[in-house]
Amino acid sequence: MEETQITPSLSVRSWSSISTQDQSSISTQDQSSTAGQASSTGPQPSKPSVIPPPVKSKGPSSGAGVRRMRRIIAEDAEWSVAIVPLLTELCIQHIVKNFQNNPILKQLPPEHQKKVLNHLSPDLPLAVTANLIEDESYWRRCCMQRWPVCHMDEHGGSWKRTFFELHLENLLKHFIPSTTDPEVILNLLPLCRNYVHTIRVDQFLPPVHLPPPLRGGDQSDSGSEGEMEEPATDHYQLGDLVAGLSHLEELDLVYGVKDCGMNFEWNLFLFTYRDCHSLAAAVKACHTLKIFRLTRSKVDDDKARILICSLLDHAALEELDLSHNLIGDRGARAAAKLLGHSRLRVLNLANNQVRAPGAQSLAHALAHNSDLVSLNLRLNCIEDEGGQALAHALQTNKCLTTLHLGGNELSEPTATLLSQVLSINTTLTSINLSCNRIGPDGGKQLLEGMSDNKTLLEFDLRLSDIAQESEYLIGQALCANREAARQRALSPSHFMSPATAKGPENPVG
Amino acid sequence: MNPPGSLGVLEEKEEEHLATPVIGPSIHSDNPQERIQARRLRIAARLEARRREALGEYLDGKESEEDQSKSYKQKEESRLKLAKLLLCGTELVTNIQVAADIREIHRRVEEEEIKRQRLEKLENEVKTSQDKFEEITMKWEEGKQKRIPQELWEMLNAQQVHCAGLIEDKNKLISELQQELKAKDDQYVKDLKKQSGDICLLLERMEEQVKNVMKTFRQELQHIEKAFEVEREELLTNNKKKWEQALQAHNAKELEYLMNRIKKVEDHEKQLNKQRIWDCEEYNTIKIKLEQDVQILEQQLQQMKATYQLNQEKLEYNFQVLKKRDEESTVIKSQQKRKINWHFALIDDKQFREIWLMNEEEVKDLISRAFDVDRIIHTHHLGLPWTAPDFWFLKNVGPISQQQQKSPTQILEEVLMEAEEEGAEEAASEPESYLDLPKQVSAKTTRKILMLLCDESGFLVESKLLSLLLPLDKSECYLLKLDAIFSALGIESEDDLYKLVNFFLKYQAHHSPPSQERTSLVSPLEKLDPQGEKEGSLVDREPQEKQPPPSPRLIHPNDVLKILEAFVTGLRKPRDFRAPVKLLKVVRDDSKDSAYWKALTTVIPATTLNLWDALYTALEKYHLVLTQRAELLIENSSLERQNTELQQLLQQYLDSKINSELQVPPTQVFRVPTK
């Protein structure tokens, strides 16, 4: 078998060495034909391309004919006129060829392992490769082959992890309940359980109804109809998958459909109660989960309560993101309760429907909390009552560093209280009060507060009706603070933790 | 990220650090508290140093020396500029978001207001329609009581009108709402467009921002690099200046050294010259002295040479003398050796012969005794005639002599010796002459031939030998000469000598017909000879002597050389395949001796022995019979004597007186035996 593989290349060599003129085009053609021939005759079609003999690798390059006459090419480390490959090369070729049936890797010495890995096809079944190959370059090739754009940085700097996370995401995105076999995902589970740390899914497909119910133009009814059809529109239940992944740390889910175009229907975007319950159970069972994001999924108060209830006293959870949902005061109250019963560091309730009572309850929880670092209530409507409550809470809180209250209909009274907080508090580094109606007087008061503060680095007051003068002065004060923070970071003699003072940061979006 | 920020702080620290060893408490202080304090300070200083090292080495290098260098300024400047740029950029980008947010808030507020109004309106509408509906339903009750169809129809019509009004109201509301919805839809589309525009703007700004930032970063980088370069150049120029100064100083010093060196070299050269002159003078004196020595020695050498030559001449003379003496001694030695050899051989032969004769005599004695016994046995006991056995070996006396090989010189010696004796006692009469060579030729002839040969072929003898032979007497001279000649001719054995002699005779016979008779006479004699050597020797001699020996005169001395040449060529051929060397001394062949002695033992044949054995046994038997007979005879004689004695006794008794006195004389009783 080896001979049949080698002889074509030999024939190419001899033939082309006879005709040493510039016939690179012909030689490449010839090679391609021989390669094709090999693929048709040989049992392993991929082999000639996997380990091309040195001559072949030079095939298409210009002046190949001339190069064939040379024994040494200093610029090319791989160039060699050896006609018969080394025995080790043959063995490696063989291993590569039969890797699917007989994967031999760990028994080889390191340099040969590397060769084998370099020549392995990325199309090998995962069942063979998943738990055998650790080599990053191999998984990099796999990733590059499947996805034109993939950022390793978003997956913990590991190509293998990147591959499995993207693979799983892909499967989940295109999973159609009651049509796709759930085994497809569960079969993957033993292979990827050690490598998947994050699940990011921004679409869950609903089950397909073969006679699609056309509801005419009255879209206003579709909501109520969705309610009625709810049991039929359950999405994939993550429970089994999440339970199987032993290293899962991050869940980032969006219950919706992307690129639906003119097929838009309201019930494509339904986060049903069953979905909610199963997700809650899954999250509760996952003890390694650190980050849980459920955004743009029409989570209302009840669903939020269900989810948050399951998250109470969760050991590992650090970040909860329920932004862009329909959470109202009751949901906010549940979140406040969660603050007291977990070690949550980041809470994001941006673009919800939290009003003053919700904010008050959050403020109450915040006053005695020592874990939360970041609170985001952008685009809610907590108004002055809520804002004042939060400001009061911040007078006692010694932990929160980032507070986003943009677009919350706040006005002067809140600003007054916040200015007091600014003069006292030494932990806050970033406050966002943009899109509020603070007014010139409020601005002045805030400026006063800033004059005593040495720690705040960012203070966003855009479109909040304050005087330009005070905004500028506040900006100056912030600049001074930033400089101070930078110097603190460089000289660790100061007790201040340098982590927060890493220079200018983008305002939280 | 920019480290030089903490410079001020560091500087303070540095000062502190520098100050401590000067003012601070000393470790060697007497006060223990002070010492503790000092150690603490030291530890703190060390920790400080370590931390600074960890922070980065670039901190404590150049910048601590020059507190505010250009590059540092430039870096600070750039950093601030870039920070500002980033801040502004992000603000610019986030502005869109903020704007969208506030729009959303406004929209929400408006929406809330509209919603509230709508709800109010709807509620009002519900109320009015409810009223109307109730009115209508009231009228239904009324209608039921109506019995007159016309009234009823009217009422129904009115009801219809009312209902239609109600429905119209509702429809109006619906259409209003639908219009609102449409407006909302339009609004939605507008919003979407606006949002996409926003997003486009956002992207644009982001891109712009990225470009901007990149550009500025590059610019700043360039600025910083430039600043660094400038600084570096300054530094370089400074260093160059320093370097040049140092180089100049160095050069000056080098020059100084060079001058010093040159001075020293000159000094040394002067000294060297002095030294050289002095050395030259010394050299000359020594040279003269040594030359004188050489002359003296040469004179001595000449003297020595003269004495040496004298000595050499003396020694040469001595050597010549010794050589002559040596030659003489060799001649004497060879003569002595020959004599001794011959003498020893003679003595050996004699001894051997004596022992042989003694043994033989003994054996013959025994044999004669045996023969006597045999003869007695035969004649006396057997009565047979006895004839003495006649064996050849019984007549043999002395050792069995074969054709003894003798060296030609021996023969020569013998020949010459004999010739000498000849004159005295006409040796021909001596029967036992052991010179048995001239079987065919007489010794005399041989001698003469040899003499002739000796005279004629003197050229074969070395001249040196000839000179040595001069003082010797004639026969000895001949002997030695012949010896040399034979060795030259290659004659080694007795046979060769005979051959030579024969050759001479034959040649003579061939070339001189008158002498042929003689030789023909000689040759038949030869043939007779070998049979009875011992006995025949006596017989042979006489005729030979009687006949005049072939005269050597017959051979002309001139022919001798020819004969010799022919002989040598003839001899060469057979000689070629012969064994190269033959022992001079021929070993005596003793093969026949054992046979001889064995034969002597078996002189009494086996048959006779058997006869003797048989005779012995017979005689034994006879002897036995005879001894028995002798015994019997003895017995008989003793019996006879007893008888006589007894008769005497009886007589005595009979004659005694007592008998007479007896009444009955015994004589009467019995008859007296008479003798």
What attributes does this structure have?
heterodimer; A: 509 residues; mainly alpha; 9-stranded parallel β-sheet; 46% helix; 6% strand; disordered C terminus; B: 675 residues; 19 helices; 82% helix; disordered N terminus; flagellum (chain B)
Descriptive report:
The complex is a heterodimer of chains A (509) and B (675). In chain A, 46% of the residues lie in helices and 6% in strands. Chain A contains 21 helices and 9 strands. Chain A has a 9-stranded parallel beta sheet with strand order 1-2-3-4-5-6-7-8-9. The radius of gyration of chain A is 31 Å and the shape is globular. The termini of chain A are far apart. Chain B is an all-alpha fold and 675 residues long. Among the domains of chain B are: 70-261; 410-415 and 440-509 and 553-572, no CATH class. In chain B, helix 8 packs across helix 9, helix 9 packs across helix 11 (474-489) and helix 12 (494-511) packs across helix 15. Chain B is elongated and about 255 Å long. Residues 1-22, 58-65, 422-438, 513-552 and 575-585 of chain B have low confidence and may be disordered. Classes of the chains: A mainly alpha (509), B mainly alpha (675). Chain A binds chain B through residues 220, 378-379, 381, 406-407, 409, 434-435, 460, 462-463, 482-483, 486-487, 490-493, 503-504, 506-507, 509, and chain B through 1-3, 5-6, 9-10, 51, 55, 83, 86-87, 90-91, 94-95, 97-99, 101-102, 104-105, 108-109, 181.
